[in-house]
Amino acid sequence: MSSLRHNAVAQSAYLDAARACILDVGWRRTTLTEVARRAGVSRMTIYRAWPDMPAVLGDLMTREWGEVVARAVAGTDAALGESADAAARIVAQVVATTRALRDNELFVRIVELDPQLLLPYLLTRRGRSQEAVAALTAERLREGQQDGSVRDGDPVAMARALLLATHGFVLSAHTMVDDSVSEADLDHELEHLVRSVVSP
Q1: Contacts of range 90-93, beta carbons closer than 8 Å, 24 or more positions apart
Q2: Among 69, 83, 88, 128, which has the minimal tally of Cβ within 10 Å of its Cβ?
């Protein structure tokens, strides 16, 4: 058990090093050798954990986005209190998570320098983070159906539809911002959109 904890701590430190590299020089200029150097370990140590940089990136994004979602969910739950129904929680959490992802420094850096890294998750397949978010949303939708605050329907399909709808608010919101419309305005519209999707 101690060995497992040690490995998890070490792997987290390696991911921290990879994150720092990507923030500094971008994905294309980040190598396993540079990750090892920043982590203070041998290149072979990193190779034992991951075969290549795409594998590192996959684990890094899963950890990063998972932490973003967890903080957003915890923050909205704390702000709303125990009296809020599931629908209110879903609306608040979707908007808060969207905003947090859009502002995340790693996400911003990837979009600025290496946006092609995100294309597989938009055009080809779902990633682990997307699966986790969809599963969490589906569970909240089921809770809402039980307390009557969410309409009937397949919660898995509804969750995936919400995920599709929010992709644009995360990835493309900046293209719709100008002197007439702010990010806050768009988030307000997202709130209405999610509420209309889930309301009975």
Answers
A1: 90/137, 90/140, 90/141, 90/144, 90/150, 90/194, 90/198, 91/191, 91/194, 91/195, 91/198, 93/140
A2: 83
Q: Are residues 34 and 84 in the same domain?
A: no
Question: Are 44 and 59 within one domain?
Answer: no
pLDDT in tens, the chain (200 residues): 444 444 778 899 999 999 999 999 998 899 999 999 999 999 999 999 999 999 999 999 999 999 999 999 999 999 998 889 999 999 999 999 999 999 999 999 999 999 998 999 899 999 999 999 999 999 999 999 999 999 999 999 999 999 999 999 999 999 999 999 999 999 999 999 999 999 99
User: Cα 141 from chain centroid?
Assistant: 19
What is the total residue count of the chain? 200
Contact of 84 with 145, CB cutoff 8 Å: no
